[in-house]
Structure formats: C-alpha cells, structure tokens
Amino acid sequence: MKNRQIHLAFPSTSQNLSISQDETVLQVLIRHEIPIKHACTNGVCGVCLTPLLSGEVDYGQQQPRGLNQKELAQGYFLPCIARCQSDITIAEPKVKVR
Ligand code: FES
Question: Which positions fall inside the 2Fe-2S ferredoxin-type domain (predicted)?
Fold first, then answer.
C-alpha cells in the first residue's frame, strides 16, 4: 500500500510525515512527538480538533461526533479517527474553545 504524506504547516516548523493507510493521523503525530491534545481517541470529545488546510481524510465506520457544524465549516477535522485519503496539509492543532 502506498503511504501518504502529512505536511505540517506550523509557524514553528514545516515538515512532512509519512502515514500508512491503516494509521490515524493522531497516531503519526504522537509517534513524531508533535504536540497535540487528545482524550477519547474515538471521535467524541473534540479535544484533538485540528485545521485541515488541504487534502482529504476519511473516518471509515466512525462518526466525527466531536466536530460540530461550525468547526466543520471552518475546516477542522478529528485526527484521532482520521485516515488519509490523499496527502494532507494541516495547521497546528488547536485547543478546543467552545
Ligand atoms: S481525542 Fe476525542 S475526538 Fe479526538
């Protein structure tokens, strides 16, 4: 299977991480010690909310219940249950403010 790339467009760094099709974005960020808050890891709490700047992710059988319509419209996604459908570019993960 072909690996995808996660491009980190952060003010502090710009680097690419390789992700396989059976990994979530959160697993890769943690493995590379990229700071990201997480709690439930099943798409419910919304703590891992991160801006998706380009590319497509897929939640498979899981529902992104931690993402409301406003956040979705603003381009956020939930890395804990997201797998890459294409190469993606993300901005720095945000701490949830609701
Ligand atoms: S860690 Fe809870 S929604 Fe991602």
Answer: 4-96
Q: Is 47 in the pocket of ligand 1 (CB under 6 A)?
A: yes
**DSSP structure string for 56-91:** -EE-TT---TT--HHHHHTTEE-TTT-EESS-EEE-
Using alpha carbons, select from 82, 45, 47, 39 the residue that is nearest to residue 62. Answer: 82
Domain architecture of the chain: domains with CATH: 4-90 (3.10.20.30)
Residue 43 CA: which ligand 1 atom is closest? 3
pTM for this predicted structure: 0.92
What tens digit of pLDDT does each residue of 3-29 get?
999 999 988 878 999 999 999 999 999
